[in-house]
Write a structure and sequence with these properties.
Structural class: alpha+beta
Number of helices: 41
Number of strands: 66
Low-confidence stretches: 46-68, 262-298, 839-843, 1089-1105, 1141-1173, 1202-1207, 1229-1263, 1325-1344, 1425-1429, 1435-1443, 1613-1621, 1978-1993
Oligomer: single chain
Radius of gyration: 54 Å
Strand content: 15-25%
Largest sheet: 11 strands, antiparallel
Mean pLDDT: 75
Distance between the termini: 93 Å
Helix content: 25-40%
Length: 1993
């Protein structure tokens, strides 16, 4: 290689030692471009004559003999990096000491060396990034051998560099570019340019990952590098910059590419090479002497222009090129255009090309696209240049429809211009297809994309048919477009698929045509074939679902055949095969000699590929002299799926043999079979059955398809002979069987030997059940064997495609013994397309062998015991469920309220739902009133003596009667009296039904009636819910969710079943039992099915599953779901069995008369009816007044005031008033209380003591029926008054006439009402009979009832028993068949999946359905609102009363004076709330104190459990042991003398491995470590520089010496000593020493330093210390010496980490200090250790509780939470607790790590510093925890009056105290600073400011050394001490105390009130009452207690 000077033409004289014809190629290049030419052949003659000894004086031609270059030179190290001291070269096995080593190229030491190996010293290594080529020559074996190896030095990887560019995005070539490397402290930085050319000459074979091309050094020394604008403008390609840097012993490198885009700085895009290039005319082909080379002719390079400079992928571009005319004289030039990535888009002879469509440019570089143009003339000379343009992506702004229009427009223009070729369209369509393969934006449909794909394929197909491709590049371009357009298979229409397949056929045909041109195009053909195969795969994937698959498959198979022919065109014999493969298709071609054809596997080397192995083919099949072309294809998808015949479940493969001319070699009727392996692609379950040969040996096989092959694969537990008998539809025996065999047979493997294949040719396989008997062949006298065998049954079929008949056939093929569950082996005698079907038999067991199976129970009891446990659990749960059903039956009833008026008959049914919230039930007395448009009901007490009411989640139904209809209900009012143990009540919803009309009203309450929850009220009115309220999402969602969980969820509903449901708990438990057993059966049936390892696994985070598992789950669901759904539906829909009413009532009255109240009203015990002594005239008057009040209430008018004193009331006047109203009613029209009658007339009556003035109202005739019930009620009231009058008699009245008049008045009013009563009775009968709940319409009711007949329950129970029994039996059978291990695995999987379904899948399903119903359907289910259907007739009140007995009526009337009939007043509610709050605070305080006591107890246990009392004594013992020989001031030599004497004597005792005391084991070795400072680390004053030669600063991290030295701290001397002696002189880092920084008395020292380990014994340590002493290891630069070792005392189970420190400040004296840390790493095994562990667990349970409490407070108080100091205290305790836990875990991990390190390195120093540090931090955290927890006691005792007074005192005095604290701080600081400045340099107590402050504080406490101050300076010392005592002690401190005393006195006189005093008193009362102690109750002002506030938060 020669360089041109100044770009001028040069003449080169080349020396040569070779004679003959040479081909000279001239290559001209620079850093950025190149050009080459072939200068022709040159004949070289040798001037020196050499005579051949055998031929005399003749001149012979020098022929270059190639020498063997087969020696492999080994390099150590293999990759030298910067800093490598030497490199050794050797040849493995070379023993020639005279081997010659030479170096070429960049060789600093070019000397020749003779030796068997060669060591390159550091000075002789090549420069960085340069190569030295070393060769070795040897004649050790009689002939010359040589070897070559390239050596280079590269930077290391232990330092990361990063290069940044400030103006490279984008690069403006008109300005310079500045690069910057980040490398702080680097000593050397070198910058390079990377050449674009490869290595040439002797370096052509040199290659390195870091040095891929040669580098040009550009700069050195600076961290920045500037590339000038001139260089950027000359460079037409990207510039790669390489930089490396060196820092100390570290080195690293980085690369950076500067992108070049010159379109911004040039007016056109023509490109000129950087350097002038010269080429020689290619016509120089004559021989010439090397000495007479003529100068080459300078030619101008090609110049090209591209336009436009900016466009898009649908813009036509034009490229014009011009070259020197002389360049193309030798022949026409070929112009090829390609992208920088190597993708060709044009090759032709035209220098100017129009209508070029370019791909998109680099979007990261402003869409810049570089087009490389190669010009090649006829002589083979090539010249390269490049042009740049910008191709933007404008498709983002267009829809697919717009894109379709643009494409159509461009195609039309090309057609008009006559340029519509396949190449032109491929250029344009490539970018369009990329755009189509991207996701569509919202609002666009796939239909447009389908049309555009079809249109493009049709256009490209038409253009390719008219203008076939001219070269492989055009074929590749078109194929790439087809592959892109067919990528999205769902967007291809049938026509598009057909067009694509037809187009691929044309392209492959063109490819075959191009191979016949005679040109060498093998590489181009291969590149063009790849996209064709990709497109074929894309179409195969989707063509199976099209109607034109037959035609499409034909085209695709022709395409594949053409591609194979093209690939074989230039194939050499016995080369590597050509393989092209995709996910669904594989292609194999090769040209093989006929001798190598047999026994060679032919496949695509993929798991899913078919494989062929040919036998030896005779000469009648293939010619032995002619090679054979092998063509193989493998389809993962059946290409003949359009045929409806056999089902092909595996891969389809084909193999054909052809001659070189393409003619097919027929292969058929071979004597030796062809082996074909066809993998299966579909998921199939494989069954393995385990047979215990000692007990049973029969397997049942169910064959579902005829004429298949059965493969039995046996896997015995031991090698044993087996006999197999196969029977059809009967058990085989020795005389009756279908087939028989004895295993093992001959085979290459155990699998083949124990495989039995039954093909249809051997035995006809029919559909049915086969029985396989397996029995061992044992010797004489042996009855049984313990062997077991796994049997896998496979049904397979080998088929081939008959091209003549166009169907699948099995002639000539059979299934082979190597068939497995994953692959089918076919053995055939001919070649064509082959496929296989694959069936798997389900797991089956032999039922007839039940006894034998259960005989193995002892060995495998898992499944049987599990099923038995389930059955036992079922029986226990059924008993519980039955009891609950009985309890539910009691709850399902309608309670007739006891306080109903016995004469009122208008009925309302109340259904009240209590919520499911915690504490929702109530023990209070609940009262209700109904408010309607026609009036308001009386308050009714809701209670039932026969059952508890208002339980959590319960439904209670009550029958409430009123005298008249209330009209349209508007609201309902509920209240309770807050009585009982749990008075709070959460009412969910209420439904009220008018039983007379059937109308219903819903009330959505969802409220608390409680004094401390919700709205804190006991009385609330709830409005009626509207339709919108009922359909609101929140209401529907929660209602649906609650119902589905309580009733719909089969498992949860067992516990929460609604009592009104016909689906009982026993039935639900039985359904769960059946479902569980069925699930177990379906699961165990498919358990253990082997899966395909190559099957794709779906990964969802941490959850992985296969399609096989999914299919098994679906199959299991399909099997068990229908029967289970049927059982549940039967139980749920079956009607309850009807009982005969008469017989049942009689039986009920006979057995238990008390239970009658459960269907009617429960009345209190009544006195004898003949006792009338309680009836008085006042009683009659009250009844008459009740009638009058009722009339006014019905008229909805205010009732006038009636005097309560009945003695002043005249009964006749009252009866006259009532009679007047009734008469007015009859005159107006027999209607009461209409609005019209209100306006027509009024009347007034004046009585003696009664003033009644009201309007009388009569209703219209239309409302007569509505008020008929009230007329009956009024008539009965008058009847009752008449009976009372007759019982009283005239004697009871003062005036007998008054009695007679009263009787007549009553009888007259009855006569007035009799017509209405009689008519209403007749109509009422009809009305009642047609009411929703009444009537005796039994027949009509039966015909209208919904559901199944009652006897269907027996069908359900039969199905439960049948399914459960069958499932349990077969589950146990399968479990016994599988064996113990597989049964356990199945059981674990079953339990996990069951609980996953129960707690995850099913709840999610319920919630999903609830959301769907609430959002989509929005239907209101009446059952969700308590609408329970009521069977039978509700009781009528009067039938239980004797209507002739007035006492019964009077007693049945309610006592309206009861307290619960009146709502509680607000004042009472407030008082109850206050009392409850106080009680809650009392119990909360007691609970808090008890929890705190437990918490503190656990904390103290944990704290003292982490500390050992022996630690102090062990620490003191070790400190005292090593202190001997220590003085207050020591020198360097004194330290080593102490180490040799006291240290070694104590470290190495009389017991090996133990220190002196013999109790503590030395863990590892002890070590000495020193830290030093550098020389000249401080500056010397100028005046003393000549007197003081050296200065070293006190220790600091910056001044620390981290160098490496030789002994005696000599840097220059090279000592070749041992490694142990060199170690003390080399600095080692903190990480390497596994150390940590150490706090000394003077400084904080790093963990690194110069280290020496003392070794395992005293002798070695003594010699080592002597060596250190002799070489002055400690000198003036030593700042600190550390003696470090660790001991373990097993007696107290403690590790002790010891650090003895000698440190100096630079004054020459060392001061001693010791640090001993004890760690408890091994936990003791005693009972106390277990107790401590339990305490730790309980402690963190307390912490979790406190976290929960504080979380609730934080949620309630929000930011105000942080304003309370006690909240912050709690938060600090929680944070410190979790921090302590983290540190405990960290300490445990570090301890285990350090102990493991010691166990592996017992002869080294074991560092436990990090463990000790973690242990110390843990101790500090626990100590602070105990401190804070103890302070918390103050808060808990805040209710103590004394503590409260102290707290109040400090709060009162805080303002004054804070001021005094500031003054005291200032004075303390002033005296501390003054004493430190005066005495710090002399007295120890004042050496630092902190020490001085401590001394001043001690002075105030009386702890002070007066003598040292007074001795130093008596006058000054006395002044300081006196003034400090006077001002600080006498003045300030006394004033401080006085302020506190004054505040305390004020607090005593005016104490701060606290409401919590009442809580204390109440708490004491509770405690006293609990203990039975009498205590005096304090009088507390309740009002004051309500208004005061506690000062302690």
């Amino acid at each position: 290689m020669h360089e041109m000077l100044h770009g001028s033409p040069q003449v080169f004289v080349i020396s040569n030692t070779i004679q003959g014809k040479l081909n000279v190629v001239v290559r001209a290049e620079n850093s950025f471009s190149r050009m080459e030419m072939d200068s022709g052949n040159t004949t070289v003659n040798c001037h020196n004559e050499t005579r051949n000894q055998h031929e005399g004086d003749t001149i012979s031609e020098h022929v270059r003999t190639a020498r063997a270059n087969n020696l492999k030179i080994i390099v150590a190290p293999e990759v030298p990096i910067i800093g490598t001291t030497s490199v050794k070269l050797y040849v493995d096995g070379l023993v020639d000491d005279n081997a010659i080593w030479r170096c070429h190229e960049a060789c600093p030491c070019p000397d020749e060396v003779t030796n068997r190996d060669y060591e390159i010293s550091k000075a002789c290594l090549p420069p960085v990034y340069s190569f030295s080529v070393y060769t070795v020559h040897t004649k050790s074996h009689g002939f010359t051998q040589s070897g070559t190896r390239c050596i280079t030095v590269i930077p290391g990887e232990n330092m990361k560099l990063s290069v940044t560019c400030s103006n490279c995005n984008p690069v403006n070539i008109a300005e310079s570019v500045k690069l910057q490397v980040q490398c702080e402290g680097c000593q050397k930085i070198v910058w390079y340019f990377e050449r674009k050319k490869d290595f040439t000459g002797s370096l052509s074979h040199c290659y390195s990952e870091s040095v891929k091309k040669s580098l040009i050094q550009k700069a050195e020394g600076s961290s920045s590098f500037t590339i000038e604008s001139d260089t950027l403008q000359k460079a037409k390609q990207d510039i790669t910059v390489v930089v490396y840097a060196i820092k100390d012993s570290l080195s690293g490198s980085a690369r950076y590419t500067v992108p070049i885009d010159d379109t911004s700085s040039t007016e056109d895009s023509s490109v000129q090479p950087l350097l002038p290039t010269t080429v020689s005319p290619s016509s120089h082909t004559t021989d010439k002497s090397i000495n007479s080379v003529t100068p080459p002719i300078a030619l101008s390079p090609p110049s090209c222009i591209i336009s436009p400079l900016v466009g898009d992928f649908l813009s036509p571009f034009k490229i014009s090129c011009s070259v020197d005319p002389s360049f193309c004289k030798a022949g026409s030039c070929i112009f090829c255009f390609k992208t920088a990535k190597g993708n060709y888009f044009y090759c032709g002879a035209e220098p100017t090309v129009e209508s070029l469509y370019l791909p998109l440019g680099n979007k990261h570089n402003n869409y810049s696209l570089t087009v490389v143009i190669t010009v090649k003339n006829g002589a083979g000379v090539t010249a390269d240049t490049a042009v740049t343009t910008r191709v933007k992506d404008t498709s983002r702004n267009h829809t697919v429809g717009d894109l379709q229009a643009l494409v159509s427009n461009q195609v039309s223009q090309l057609q008009q211009q006559g340029r519509l070729t396949g190449a032109a369209l491929a250029q344009m369509f490539q970018s369009v297809s990329d755009r189509l393969n991207e996701p569509l934006p919202e609002g666009q449909h796939d239909s447009v994309k389908k049309e555009l794909r079809q249109q493009m394929l049709q256009s490209l197909s038409a253009a390719t048919s008219s203008f076939p491709p001219n070269n492989p590049a055009e074929v590749q371009m078109s194929a790439n477009v087809v592959a892109g357009l067919t990528t999205q298979g769902h967007e291809l229409t049938d026509t598009a698929q057909l067009q694509a397949s037809y187009l691929l056929t044309n392209l492959s045909t063109s490819l075959v045509t191009l191979t016949r041109s005679g040109k060498e195009l093998s590489e181009q053909i291969l590149q063009a074939s790849m996209p064709i195969i990709d497109a074929v795969s894309n179409i195969i994937k989707v063509s199976s679902s099209t109607s034109k698959q037959n035609e499409i498959s034909s085209h695709l198979l022709n395409t594949v055949d053409n591609v194979q022919s093209a690939l074989l065109a230039d194939k050499k014999v016995n080369q590597e095969p050509t393989i092209l493969s995709t996910s669904v298709f594989g292609l194999y071609v090769n040209r093989i000699s006929s001798n190598d054809l047999s026994k060679q596997p032919i496949n695509v080397q993929k798991n899913s590929s078919a494989s062929f192995i040919l036998p030896s083919l005779g000469s009648d099949v293939v010619s032995q002299d002619e090679p054979v072309d092998v063509r193989m294809t493998s389809f993962r998808i059946n290409p003949f799926s359009w045929h409806d015949g056999e089902h092909i479940s595996g891969s389809v493969g084909s193999l054909s043999l052809t001659k070189m001319n393409g003619s097919v070699i027929p292969v058929a009727n071979l004597t030796e079979e062809i082996e074909i392996l066809l993998p299966r692609t579909e998921v199939a379950e494989v069954n393995q059955t385990l047979l215990e040969l000692a007990n049973f040996s029969t397997v049942v096989i169910n064959v579902t398809a005829p004429n298949i092959s059965l493969v039995f694969k046996l896997d015995p537990s031991e090698e044993t002979p087996l006999q197999l008998l196969l029977g059809f539809q009967d058990y085989p025996n020795d005389t009756n069987y279908e087939a028989r065999i004895q295993l093992p047979q001959d085979g290459d493997s155990a699998e083949e030997r124990y495989t039995w294949v039954l093909n249809p040719t051997e035995m006809t396989i029919e559909v049915g059940v086969y029985y396989l008997l397996v029995r061992p062949v044992v010797g004489a006298g042996v009855n049984s064997t313990n062997a077991s065998v796994f049997i896998t049954t496979i049904a397979a079929h080998c088929l081939y495609w008959d091209e003549i008949k166009a169907n699948w056939s099995g002639d000539g093929c059979r299934v082979g013994p190597r068939t497995t569950t994953l692959v089918t082996q076919c053995l055939c005698t001919h070649l064509t397309f082959f496929g296989s079907s694959f069936l798997v038999m389900p797991n089956v067991v032999d039922v007839s062998r039940t006894a034998e199976l259960f005989a193995t129970f002892v060995n495998n009891p898992v499944v049987v015991c599990f099923v038995g446990a389930i059955i036992l659990a079922y029986l226990v749960v059924v008993m519980w469920a039955r009891r609950k059903d009985i309890q539910d039956a009691v709850k399902v009833k309608v309670t007739v309220l006891e306080d109903n008026d016995p004469l009122a008959e208008y009925r309302y049914l109340l259904s009240i739902n209590t919520g499911h919230r915690r504490g929702a039930s109530t023990s209070s007395q609940v009262t209700v009133t109904l408010q309607g448009t026609e009036g308001e009901s009386e308050p009714h007490h809701l209670t039932d003596p026969g059952k508890p009411v208002f339980e959590r989640g319960g439904l209670d139904m009550f029958l409430l009667t009123t005298p008249f209809s209330l009209g349209e209900l508007q609201s309902i009012r509920l209240w309770h009296d807050n009585s009982g143990q749990h008075p709070a009540w959460y009412v969910n919803k209420v439904m009220v039904q008018d039983l007379e009309t059937g109308q219903k009203w819903h009330f959505l309450c969802n409220s608390w009636l409680s004094i401390d929850l919700g709205e804190c009220t006991l009385d609330k009115v709830f409005p009626v819910a509207t339709e919108m309220d009922l359909k609101r999402f929140s209401n529907l969602f929660f209602m649906k969710t609650a119902k589905d969980f309580r009733d719909g969820h089969i498992w949860f509903s067992v516990i929460s079943r609604p009592p009104s449901s016909n689906f009982t708990r026993v039935q639900r438990v039985s359904c769960c039992f059946s479902l569980l057993l069925c699930t177990m059966l379906t699961s165990i049936m498919f358990w253990g099915i082997p899966s395909d390892p190559s099957e794709q696994t779906m990964d969802l985070g941490q959850i992985e599953f296969t399609w096989q598992q999914v299919m098994i789950g679906i199959q299991s669901s399909i099997i068990m779901f229908p029967i289970n759904l049927l059982i549940v539906s039967i139980f749920r829909n079956a009607r309850p069995r009807e009982q005969k009413s008469e017989s049942s009532s009689k039986q009920q009255s006979k057995t238990d008369p008390k239970k009658q109240g459960k269907t009617g009203r429960v009345s209190p015990n009544q006195p004898p009816h003949n006792n009338h002594k309680e009836i008085t005239p006042d009683t009659v008057i009250k009844d008459v007044k009740r009638i009058a009040q009722s009339l006014y209430k019905v008229m909805r008018r205010p009732v006038p005031r009636i005097e309560l004193d009945s003695t002043k009331t005249n009964i006749n006047n009252l009866l006259s008033l009532v009679e007047e109203i009734i008469c007015q009613h009859n005159r107006i029209g027999n209607e009461f209380y209409t609005d019209s009658s209100k306006k027509e007339q009024t009347f007034a009556a004046s009585l003696e003591c009664v003033n009644l003035k009201e309007s009388s109202y009569c209703e219209s005739a239309e409302q007569n029926g509505k008020h008929s019930i009230y007329s009956q009620y009024l008539y009965k009231q008058l009847q009752n008054v008449e009976r009372e009058l007759r019982l009283l008699g005239p004697s009871s009245f003062s005036k007998p006439d008054s009695y007679n008049q009263a009787v007549l008045q009553v009888q007259g009013m009855k006569k007035l009402l009799e017509p209405q009563v009689s008519s209403s009775s007749a109509s009422g009968l009809h009305t009642r009979s047609s009411s929703p709940t009444g009537g005796n319409s039994g027949d009509s009711k039966k015909c209208c009832q919904k559901g199944l007949p009652w006897w269907f329950v027996f069908v359900g129970w039969f199905l439960v028993v049948a399914t459960s029994g069958v499932s349990a039996y077969f589950t146990m059978m399968y479990g016994l068949t599988y064996g113990k291990e597989r049964s356990i695995s199945w059981l674990i999987s079953m339990v996990v999946s069951f609980f996953e379904s129960l707690f995850i899948t099913q709840p999610v399903k319920v919630l999903g359905f609830a959301v769907f119903f609430a959002l989509v359907l929005k239907t209101v289910d009446q059952e969700d609102y308590g609408d329970v259907p009521i069977d039978g007739t509700l009781p009528i009140m009067t039938k239980h009363l004797s209507t002739d007995d007035p006492d019964a009526v009077r007693i049945a009337r309610r006592d309206s004076t009861c307290s619960f009939y009146q709502p509680p007043p607000p004042t009472n509610i407030e008082k109850m709330r206050n009392n409850m709050i106080k009680e809650q605070k009392v119990f909360a305080l007691i609970r808090e104190i008890l929890i705190y006591v437990g918490f503190l107890w656990m904390l103290l246990l944990v704290a003292y459990g982490q500390r050992d009392p022996h630690a102090y004594y062990l620490t003191q013992h070790i400190r005292q042991s090593f202190r001997n020989g220590i003085s207050d001031s020591m020198k360097h030599n004194d330290i080593l003398n102490w180490a040799k004497s006291s240290l070694l004597n104590n470290l190495f005792g009389q017991y090996p491995g133990f220190i002196t005391d013999g109790n503590s084991k030395l863990v590892g070795n002890a070590r000495l470590r020193q830290v030093r400072v550098r020389k000249d680390s401080c500056k010397i004053a100028k005046t003393m520089q000549y007197s003081v030669p050296d200065c070293h600063a006190p220790y600091s991290w910056d001044a620390e010496d981290m160098g490496s030295y030789s002994p005696g701290w000599n840097r220059n001397k090279n000592v070749n000593g041992s490694k142990i002696l060199l170690t003390p002189w080399h600095y080692q880092t903190q990480n390497k020493l596994r150390a940590s920084p150490v706090w000394g008395g003077l400084a904080l020292y790093k963990g690194g330093g110069f280290v020496v380990e003392l070794g395992p014994d005293k002798k070695n340590a003594s010699s080592l210390l002597q060596y250190l002493y002799d070489n002055i290891w400690l000198d003036v630069y030593t700042q600190a010496v550390f003696v470090e070792f660790t001991v373990y005392n097993a007696n107290v189970n403690l590790f002790c980490i010891v650090t003895l420190t000698f440190e100096t400040t630079g004054v020459g004296a060392f001061y001693y200090r010791s640090e001993v840390q004890t760690v408890h790493l091994y936990q003791s095994t005693g009972g106390f250790h277990v107790f401590v562990i339990a305490s730790e667990a309980i402690y963190f349970l307390f912490i979790l509780y406190y976290m929960f409490v504080q979380g609730k407070l934080m949620k309630q108080q929000k930011w105000a939470y942080f304003s309370s100091k006690w909240n912050l205290l709690e938060l600090a305790i929680i944070i410190l607790s979790w921090s302590a836990l983290c540190v405990l875990v960290k300490r445990t991990m570090l301890g285990n790590r350090d102990i493991e390190y010691y166990q592996n390195n017992k002869d080294m120093f074991a560092s436990f510093y990090e463990t000790a540090t973690a242990d110390a931090v843990l101790g500090y955290l626990i100590a602070f925890l105990v401190l804070l927890a103890t302070i918390k006691l103050w808060h808990l005792l805040r209710l103590n009056p004394k503590l409260h007074m102290i707290t109040s005192t400090l709060q009162r005095a805080w303002t004054d105290i804070s001021g005094f604290i500031v003054v005291m701080t200032i004075m303390f600081l002033a005296y501390s600073i003054a004493c430190n400045l005066m005495y710090g340099w002399r007295l120890y107590s004042y050496r630092t400011l902190l020490e001085a402050a401590q001394t001043i504080i001690c002075l105030q406490l009386g702890i002070f050394n007066y003598d040292e101050v007074l001795d130093y300076n008596p006058l000054l010392g006395a002044f300081l001490i006196g003034s400090c005592i006077i001002f600080m002690t006498f003045v300030v401190l006394n004033l401080f105390i006085s302020v506190i005393l004054v505040a305390f006195n004020e607090e005593q006189l005016h104490p701060t009130p606290s409401e919590e005093e009442e809580i204390v008193d109440l708490m004491l009362m509770k405690i006293c009452s609990l203990l039975g102690i009498k205590c005096k109750k304090k009088q507390i002002d309740a009002d004051a207690s309500m208004t005061t506030a506690s000062v302690i938060s």
